[in-house]
Amino acid sequence: MFKASIYVNYKPSVLDPKAEAIKTALKRMDYDNVESVLFGKYFELVLAAKDEQAASAQVDHICDALLANVNMETYRFELTEISEVKA
Amino acid sequence: MFKASIYVNYKPSVLDPKAEAIKTALKRMDYDNVESVLFGKYFELVLAAKDEQAASAQVDHICDALLANVNMETYRFELTEISEVKA
Amino acid sequence: MKAAVISFPGSNCDQDLAWAFQEIAGIDTDIVSASETTLAGYDIVGVPGGFSYGDYLRSGAIASFSPIMPALKAHAENGGLVIGICNGFQILCEAGLLPGALQWNKSLSFICAPEELAVVNTDTPFSNAYEPEQTITLPIAHGEGNYYADPDTLAKLEANQQVVFRYRDNPNGSLNDIAGLTNAAGNVLGMMPHPERAVEALLGGTDGLGVFESLKQEVLANAAR
Amino acid sequence: MQRVELDPQAIKEQKPYLDWGLTEEEYDRFTSKLGRLPNYTEIGLASGMWSEHCAYKYSKPVLKTFWTKNDRVLMGPGEGAGVIDIGEGKAVVFKAESHNHPSAVEPYEGAATGVGGIIRDIFSIGAEPIALLDSLSFGELDDPHVRHLVDEVVAGIGGYGNSIGIPTVGGETNFDPTYARNPLVNAMCVGVMNKDQIQRGRAAGVGNAIIYVGAKTGRDGINGASFASSEFADDKQADRAAVQVGDPFMEKLLTDACLEVTRQHRDALVGMQDMGAAGLISSSVEMADKAGAGMALDLDLIPQREPGMIPFEIMLSESQERMLLCVRAGSEQEIIDVFTKYGLDAVVCGHVIDELRYKLYHKGDLVCDVPVSLLASDAPIYHQQGEKPARLEHPVAPAMPEITDVQSTWLAMLGQSTIADKSSLYRRYDAQVKTNTVVLPGSDAGVVRIRGTHKALAMTTDSNGRYLYLNPQRGGAMVVAEAARNLVASGAEPIGITDCLNYGDPTQPTHFYELAESAKGITSACKQLNTPVISGNVSLYNETNGAAIHPTPMIGMVGLIDDLATVTTSGFKNAGDVIFLVGETGDDFNGTELQKMLQGQIAGELFPLDLRAEKANQDAVLGAIRSGLVSAAHDLSIGGFAVALTEMALQGNLGADVTLNLTNAQLFAETQGRFLLTVPADKAAEFSAQVGALAQEIGRVTSGDQLHVQTASDAFAIDLTAARATYEEAIPCHMK
Ligand SMILES: Nc1ncnc2c1ncn2[C@@H]1O[C@H](COP(=O)(O)OP(=O)(O)O)[C@@H](O)[C@H]1O
Ligand SMILES: [Mg+2]
C-alpha cells in the first residue's frame, strides 16, 4: 500500500487571483514581512500497487489526467510505502 | 528568511464533497485500487523573521486567522530557513 | 437537422439550452445523458452550463471523463459542430477540445450580470448572423470564467482568428478580453456568456439569437452542399 | 469526540440534558409520561424534539393565532411548505427558513445549508423549485467582522443556489447595529406543481417501508436544533461541533430523483419529508405522528459516514441532503431503483408498525421504545405571559428632524447601507438560470413566468426591525403591507405569505410580548390584504450576551400575475411620462432611516398605519396597472419619496421634474401606503379618471440627468451622476 502526497500549483507564469487576494489580506493584517505567497492544492491518495514503480506510474497518470490542469498547473508528488490503512 | 509549507485539511468529521467527487471520478477512470482521497490546500509563504520561533508564531497566527477556517479545517506547517529568496 | 444537449450530473442549463434550440431556433433537439456513449445522427452538440459533478476539483475537470466524451471528441474530429457554454466551455477546455483554461474570476466572486461583447469574427458557424464588430449584450453567470492560455497558445489562436467574442469591459480578467473562441478547425466554440439566456424579449433581450441562427444556417448550408 | 452513554440512573443524577437545552421540569415530564427513567438515546431524542425549533413550545400559541386559510389555500402550515391554488390546475408552494445561528458561527456553510434546507422543503411537497429569495440583516459595515459575515453569507447563498441551478430572484439586505453579532440569514424557496399531486410527510400503513435517501449520516450538526434554540454568549463561539457542510451537487440529484418519484411513482409513495432540524429523529417521528402510526427503525442500516456512531448521534445528526420516504410494502425496489439511477444511496431502514410506539434498534438492541406522540404532539407547550418592555411605556419622541441642506441630506440618504444599491451583493447570485426570470433583482419584486401559461409569480421578502422596536404590533402589520406594496408595484395580486419570526429569548416576558404583539399586527394586515400565512419558521434566542435583536419578523410574500403583459418595473421608461404620487404624506419620522442618520437613534412613537387606506391605494394601483395605464411603478419605503424617485430615475437613466406640496423633511418621511407611478402622457386623463383623488400628479419624466424638485419651501436639483455614484458605490466602498 502506498501513500502519495501530491502538490498541484499554478505555473509561475500564471497570475493566481487567490494568491493575490491572500497577499492583499496579509498586507492589511500588517504582515509586511511576507515576501511571497503560493497557493496550491494538496492531495493524499492511498492506493494499492505491486511496487513503487507501478504506484508512481499510476499517480503520475492520475495527476496528469485529473488532478492538475497542465495548461496552467504543475504537480509533484512523493510516495511512501505504508503497511496498513486505517478504515 | 523562512519558508513555511502549510497544509490545510478538513477535519475528519466534516463532510468533504470535493474528495468524494474525486473518488467517484477515479472509480470511473477504473482506478479501483485507490482506497482513500484527501483533498486539502497547500500554501508556501516566504517571510522574514528574526528567528524560527518568531516565524512560527507568525505563521501560526496567519493560518488561524486567514488561511484555515478553523470551524471546519485543521492546519499544520513546516518551517525551513532559507538563505535567499528568488523574486 | 438535429441537436443534442449533453446533460451531465450537475448540469443546470441543459433544459435552457435545449429550449433555445428547440423552441426558439426550431431545431429538433434531444437531451442526451453524459452516461451515453454515442452522438450519432446529431448535427450540433451543445455542452451546457452548470456545475458538472459539483465542479469540486476544477470546473469541468471531472466531466471531461464522462462516458459521452469519446463520442463528443469523435463528433468534433469529424467536423461536427460543438458549442460549449459556460461550464460547457470549461469542459471543452479540460477535455482538450479547446486551447487554454478558465481560472477564477479576478474578483474571486461569482458574477451574474449583462455584459457587452464585440463579435470580432463573424466568419464562423456560430457567429455568421452577426455584423462584424457588432456589439451585443449577453448575460454572464460564472465564478471561473477568467480565460488563460500560455503566451504561445494565445499568439497562435489570435493569429488564427479563433477569438469570436471579446468583452468590451472585461469583467473577469480574461486574457485579451476573450469571452468566446473556437478550436483551430473552427467547428468547436466555447464561450462564457449565455446566448441561450438572451433569446426572448420578455426575459430582457434577444442578442443571443444570432448564435442559434448562425448554427441553423450553417447546418442548412452544409446539407445543401 | 467520543460520547459516553450514561445509564438512566446516571442521567437522572448528572443531568447531561441540561446542556442539550432540556430543563429539569421537562426531564421529569418526559420521565413520568414514559413511566420509567429514559435511557441516553431516549432523552437525547427528547432534547431534539422538545427544542423550540422542533416543538415550537413557546411560539405555538402565537402561531395558532395566524390567519391561515382562504379559498385559494390548498395546504396551510403543518407540512414542509404551504400550497396555494393559482389556477389552470397549477399551485404555488413556498416557505422560508432561518439559519441565523449556524451563519453566525460559520457564515458560508450556515447560509449555504439554509438554502439547501429550504429547497428540500419545497420538493418534498412534490413541487419543482423555481426561485429562491433571501433576507439578510447584518450589523454596520464599518465593523470588519460584519464585512466578513456579509461576504461569506452572500457567497454561501450563491454557492448553493447557483450550483443547484435555482435562480435567486430577490431578497433584502439590512444593516443595523442590533444585528452586529447575531446576523439574520433567512432564505425562501418558491416552487410550482400540478395541484393534484400534493405530497405529504406521512408514514402510514402497517408494514410499509421507511426508506432513507441521500447523503450519509455523519457527526455534523449534532444538537443543531437545540443549538438554534439557545442564545449566544461569546464563550460559546468556541462551540463548533454544529457546523454542517452543504453539497449542492448531491441536492440537485436528490431534487431530480424525488420529483421523479412523486410524479411517476405516486402509487408506490406514501409520504416524504426532508431531514431538517434534528435530522432523522424529527423527520421520522413527525411522519409517524401526523399519520397516527408507529415506527421501528434499524440504525445499523442507516448509511454512515463515520464509524462508531452511537444512536444518539445517528438520530440527531444534521447532515445535509437527506430525505425520508414511506413506501408501500412490495414497491421498495421500484423506488430504490429511481435513486440508484441518480447515483444516490437509498436503503430500507425500517417499517411502519402496528403499535403507536417509536422503536429504534442498534446492533441488535432495542435502544429506544417510547410512544410516538411523546416525542411529537405531546411535547410541552408553554403559555408564556408577555410584558410590555419599558421602552414602549413612555416613548420619548425626539425633536422633528431638521433639514438644513436638503441636497446633501438627499445624497447622504442614498449612501446609507440599508438604502444603497445592493447589486454588488446580488450580482453574486445567478438570477437567470432556468430562463424564466422576467424581473431580475433590483426592482420591487422578482418575477418568474410559469411556462405553459400566461401567468407569472411575483415574490418578495421584507422586514423592518426598527418599526417593530417602536411598536411591535403596528410594525408587524407594516412589514406585511410593505411586502404587498412591492408585489402590487410589480403588477401582481398578493396571494399569501410565509414568515421567519426572528426574536429574542421567549422565556423573557418582554420578548414574548414582542412576538405575540407582532403576530397580532401581522394577522390584521394579512386579513385586510387577503394574504393568509401558509408556512413559516421560528427563530428565537437571537441574542448575544443577553442583548436581543430588534423583533424582526421576515415576511416572504408571493403574488400572482395573470397576464405577463402587465408585469411592471420601477425604472422610468420614457421622457414625457406623467408622474403621480399615490397616498398622503405625513410627518412620519420615528423609526425611519432619516431619524437614524440625523439623530443616531431609533426612538419615539411609531407613526400610524391605516390598513384600509393601504388596501385602497394598493387596489387602485393594481387596477391601473392591469388597465395598461402605468409605465413604471415603485412603492415608497425606507427613505421615502426622495429615495424612490431617485431609484426610478437611476434605473431608467432618465430625469424628472416634480413639484410637491411637502416640506423638505417630508421628502424622507416613511408614511405607509404610498407609490410613485408614471403614466404615458396620452393615458394620463384616463388614469386620473380611474384612480381619482388617491393619486396626485406631481410632474414629468425628463430626458436630462437631473431631478428638479420643488417643495413647499425650496426649489433645487439633484445631479443624477453624483446620486448614482453615492448610491452604487456605498457598499462596494465599505466592503473593500
Ligand atoms: N412562523 C410560522 N408561521 C406559520 N407557520 C409556521 C411558522 N413556523 C412554523 N410553521 C409551520 O410549522 C411547520 C413545521 O415547521 P418546521 O419545523 O420549520 O418545518 P421543517 O421541519 O421543514 O423545518 C411547517 O408547516 C411550517 O410551515
Ligand atoms: Mg419596494
Report on the architecture of this protein.
The complex is a heterotetramer, with two copies of chain A (87 residues), one copy of chain C (225 residues) and one copy of chain D (736 residues). Chain A is of the alpha+beta class and 87 residues long. In chain A, 32% of the residues lie in helices and 37% in strands. Chain A has helices at residues 17-28, 52-67; strands at 2-10, 34-47, 73-81. Chain C has 225 residues and is α/β, with parallel strands linked by helices. Helix content of chain C is 24%, strand content 26%. Chain C contains five helices and eleven strands; from the N terminus they run βαββαβαββββαβββα. Chain C has helices spanning 14-24, 69-77, 87-94, 151-159, 209-224, and strands spanning 2-7, 28-33, 44-47, 81-85, 101-103, 111-119, 135-142, 146-148, 163-167, 178-182, 188-191. In chain C, the strands form two sheets. A nine-stranded mixed sheet of chain C has the order 2-1-3-4-11-10-9-6-7, sandwiched between helices. In chain C, strands 5-8 form a two-stranded antiparallel ribbon. The longest helix of chain C is centred in the last third of the chain and has 16 residues, at 209-224. The two termini of chain C are 14 Å apart. By secondary structure, chain D is α+β, with helices and mostly antiparallel strands. Chain D is globular and about 85 Å long. Chain D has 25 helices and 28 strands. Chain D has a domain at 568-736: PurM-like C-terminal domain (Phosphoribosyl-aminoimidazole Synthetase, Chain A, domain 2), CATH 3.90.650. In chain D, helix 20 links the parallel strand 17 and strand 18. The chains are: A alpha+beta (87), C alpha/beta (225), D alpha+beta (736). Magnesium ion (MG) is lined by residues 444, 486, 635, 637 of chain D.
